[in-house]
Amino acid sequence: MLESACIELQEITDMGHGHDHHHDHEHETAGADVPAALDMSIPDSELSPSDVSRRGFLRGAGLLGAGAAASVLATPSAAQAAGLPHSHGPAGGGTDKGGFKWLSGDHHIHTQYSSDAQYRVIDQAKHGRAFGLDWVVITDHGSATHAKIGVDLVNPDIRKTRDELRDLLTFQGLEWNIPGAEHATVFVTPSKNEVEVLKKFEQNYDGSLLPATNTNEQNEAAAIAGIKFLASQVKARKVDGALFFANHPARRGIDSPHEIRNWRDADPTVAVGFEGAPGHQAAGIPAPNGRGGARGYYDNNPSAASYQGYPLESYRTWGGFDWMTATVGGLWDSLLSEGKAWWITVNSDSHVNYLDQSDRGPDSNFEVNGRYNDPVYTGKTLTTAGDFWPGFYGRTTVGASSWGYKQVMDGLRAGRVWVDHGRLIKSLDARVRVAGDRRGFSGTPLGGVVHVKRGTTTEITLDIDLQDVPNWAQFIPVLKRVDVIVGTVTGPVADKDSFKAPDTKVVKSFEISKKTGKVSISYSFGRLDKPFYVRVRGTDGNRTQPGLMGPGVDPYGPKLDVVGDADPWGDLWFYTNPIWVLPK
Question: More exposed terminus of the chain, fewer Cβ within 10 Å: N or C?
Answer without folding.
Answer: N
